[in-house]
From TrEMBL:
CDD domains in UniProt: AAT_like
Key words of the record: Pyridoxal phosphate
InterPro entries per record: Aminotransferase_I/II_large, Ethylene_sulfur-biosynth, PyrdxlP-dep_Trfase, PyrdxlP-dep_Trfase_major, PyrdxlP-dep_Trfase_small
Molecular functions (GO terms): pyridoxal phosphate binding; transaminase activity
Protein name as it appears in the record: Aminotransferase class I/classII large domain-containing protein
Length: 329
């Protein structure tokens, strides 16, 4: 009982392989595909396999979220994915915060070859080992006191060893924490297919998507308060002015930068609908959409959160034009 090596579905695998002998023999419809497979392949993984995998990943998350196979990179197991992420996101001497108790293999996978340190987020039995804000802050301070630069938080959901899932509240807390500290969040969801109390499992993807409003939900006025922070070249007010100028000169639209309204976070803009016809509004929206789509190739979309923000831009654009039509009717 000390080894988390999953043999529970071996019978299913064996019977599937018996019924589908082509798969193990490198055949398709009875013909060998060995040579096809033995040649160079897409280094991120076979596209057909990735397509099947994104469907499966969505299915085991109750089809509440979807994944883009173009943004998927396959590795030989979660161990190498976790180690590769450490190599990509941190330098030797940087730290990742991990809630305790954690999977003992992480001391090897995350630290040994990368030189990255793990700083524990101390979770305790009195609240069922839940992640709390104070535990997160304490771990962060602990890393700082050891002169370690914190690059992110890594959680397992469902948890090994707890055998529990993170609550929406915990996920929201984690997302707020990483966005305030401007650090990464890694969610190792390797056990997401083993949930037996399924309505309770919430993937971090679900919370991310819900969080990604592009436009503050308004109920009055002639304005839309829009977050375009993910398009900034730097998360500063200089970056905001740079984007504003681009929109003025390249798109031919003047939408007020948040700094002119004394907003304390760079990247927000006020789109004002006070003085234009529906036709003009539609043209403005179309131009903005073209601009955002063209930036798609230029902006380095660093994480899924940013990606989702971009996607919901179209939703915002739609809402704006839809609402306008409704009003005119
Ligand atoms: C949370 C967690 N991540 C990763 C792994 C390793 O996964 P793999 O066998 O796919 O490398 C394990 C194995 O038990 C695990 O518990």
């Amino acid at each position: 009982m000390g080894l988390a090596e999953n043999q529970l579905s071996f019978d299913l695998l064996e019977s599937w392989l018996t019924q589908n002998p082509d798969a193990a023999a490198f055949k398709r419809n009875g013909d060998s595909i060995f040579r096809e497979l033995a040649l160079f392949q897409d280094y991120h993984g076979l596209p057909a396999f990735k397509d099947a995998l994104v469907q499966f990943m969505s299915e085991i998350r109750g089809n509440k979220v979807s994944f883009d196979s173009n943004k998927l990179v396959l590795t030989a197991g979660a161990t190498s994915a976790n180690e590769t992420l450490m190599f990509c996101l941190a330098d030797p001497g940087d730290a990742f915060l991990l809630p305790t108790p954690y999977y003992p293999g992480f001391d090897r996978d995350l630290k040994w070859r990368t030189g990255v340190e793990i700083v524990p987020i101390q979770c305790v039995s009195s609240n069922g080992f839940r992640i709390t804000e104070s535990a997160l802050e304490e771990a962060y301070k602990e890393a700082e006191s050891r002169n370690l630069r914190v690059k992110g938080v890594l959680v397992t959901n469902p948890s090994n060893p707890l055998g529990t899932t993170l609550t929406k509240k915990e996920l929201q807390l984690l997302l707020n924490f990483v966005s305030t500290k401007q650090i990464h969040l890694i969610s190792d969801e390797i056990f997401s297919g083993t949930v037996f109390n399924s309505p309770k499992f919430v993937s971090v993807m679900e919370v991310l998507i819900k969080n990604n409003y592009m436009c503050l939900e308004s109920d009055a006025g002639l304005f839309c308060w829009v977050d375009m922070g993910y398009l900034l070249s730097s998360n500063t007010f200089d970056g905001e002015m740079e984007l504003w100028k681009k929109i003025v000169y390249e798109v031919g639209l003047n939408i007020s930068p948040g700094s002119s309204c004394h907003c304390t976070e760079p990247g927000w803009f006020r789109a004002c609908l006070a003085n234009m016809s529906e036709d003009t509004l539609n043209i403005a929206i179309q131009r903005l959409k073209t601009f955002v789509d063209s930036r798609d190739n230029k902006v380095d979309i660093q994480n899924q959160q940013q990606y989702n923000k971009k996607k919901s831009f179209s939703k915002w654009v739609f809402r704006l034009s839809f609402n306008e039509r409704q009003r005119e009717r």
